[in-house]
Amino acid sequence: MKKEIKKFNIYSRIETFFKKVGLNPENGDVLALSGKYLAISEGRFYKLEDVVPTDEAYELAKANDGDPRIAELVLRESEAVMPSFAGIFMASVKGMLQPNAGIDKSNIKEGYVVLYPQDPNASARKIRLFVLDRYGVKVGVVVTDSRIYPTRKGTTGIAIGYSGILPIVDERGSKDLFGKKLKVTKRAIADQLATMVQPIMGESNESRPIVLIRGLSEYVVDGDVEAELSVSYEEDIYFAAIKNYLQGKFYPKKQVRAKDNARKALYQGL
């Protein structure tokens, strides 16, 4: 008889992690946890055969050559869904654009999918308080996932939840190397920390869902800092550029159009 996937106690797994690496957390450390690992611990997974798609899910899947069951879960988890291609649904989840709303078939038993944690910030806060109670130290916590960037191959990291850290550092008003004042620069510390641990966590069978970061205590704070990590579509430079591209506002026109036609031919051949 095959074993079913079960949720588990994330706090005991954290204790096991510290024992395994032979370290105890210290004040100013940052604990990074895989969002998928945390989600499984909370029971945030589905057996695909148990998902019943709605008519809207079938419509979305047909428009994108995708799985209606995945489409159904994406619709449940998202504020808005936009068909992409090759069965991928680009979804807005709490202001983040993520393929398939972060729903993933990897690193979970065949026939199952794992979602995001229900409330990643709340989960991060509970973990931070657990470490404080168990070990007597103040740490930051980042819940991570992988993401892709427009026009770039491969994945990098993104923070889907955090607690006890400065998620954004506003550099506006400070000066660069040549004394010029910065006007728009904000450093996405939470995302940078998530990206930092991706080579260690890996994407396949590395089995490193928890990573300890030491030496960045200047970004660790006592408590939670509320910050909006996403921008509206109207303020997003990628959305603005894509909108202009679709309206034919690009230069040099002949060169760009030739490359665009080549990409279309490639996608049609997939």
Describe this structure in words.
- The protein has 270 residues and is of the alpha+beta class.
- It folds into three domains: 156 residues, CofE-like (60s Ribosomal Protein L30, Chain: A, 2-Layer Sandwich), CATH 3.30.1330; 71 residues, CofE-like domain (CofE-like fold); 40 residues, no CATH class.
- It is built from eight helices and eleven strands.
- Strands 8-7-1-11 form a four-stranded mixed β-sheet. A three-stranded antiparallel β-sheet has the order 3-4-5, covered by helices on one side. Strands 2-6 form a two-stranded antiparallel sheet.
- Strand 3 and strand 4 form a beta hairpin.
- Helix 3 crosses helix 4.
- The longest helix is centred in the middle third of the chain and has 16 residues.
- The protein is globular.
- The model has no long low-confidence stretch (mean pLDDT 88).
Largest sheet: 4 strands, mixed
Task: Specify the structural class.
Answer: alpha+beta
Compressed to H and E, one letter per element, the order equals HEHEHHEEEEHEEEEHEHH
Tally of contiguous helical segments: 8
Instruction: Give the rounded overall mean pLDDT.
Output: 88
What is the CATH C level class of the largest domain, in words? Alpha Beta
Number of domains: 3
- Please state the CA-atom Rg, rounded to the nearest Å: 21 Å
Number of strands: 11
Salient structural properties:
3 domains; 60s Ribosomal Protein L30, Chain: A; four-stranded mixed sheet; three-stranded antiparallel sheet; 270 residues
Give the helices and strands, then pairings.
Blueprint: H1 10-21, E1 30-34, H2 35-41, E2 45-47, H3 55-64, H4 68-77, E3 80-83, E4 89-93, E5 96-99, E6 112-114, H5 120-135, E7 140-147, E8 156-163, E9 169-170, E10 186-187, H6 189-201, E11 210-213, H7 237-246, H8 253-268
Parallel strand pairs: 1-7
Antiparallel strand pairs: 1-11, 2-6, 3-4, 4-5, 7-8, 9-10
Helix pairs in contact: 3-4
